[in-house]
Amino acid sequence: MNKHLITFIAAATLVSGAAFAAEVPASVDAAKCKAEYPKASLMNEEQGAVSMAFLVSAGGDVVESKVEKSSGFKNLDKAALKALSACKFKPGTKDGAAAQTWAKVDYVWSL
Question: Is the domain 3-14+21-110 a CATH 3.40.50.300 member?
Fold first, then answer.
């Protein structure tokens, strides 16, 4: 049985200046956003967790994405990054208004 786990890391960011503002990062619905296990990775029984970051627009689209910590397997990293980049995110906020923010996502590949 293939199990995929997505975890989201929420972080508050302080903006410098006289007034400090909280930033709420973007998020994604894990139930609607799944990656397909790469066939070569299945055959080789590769497993691991990949940590990624996504820059999400105020409209919920991914503007930029990057792997911050590899699973140890390029195929797993690429598959997770590609699948999650295509997902619709819930935009983050700054000062209570939708804004472009970074979202950190961990994707766990498990057989």
Answer: no
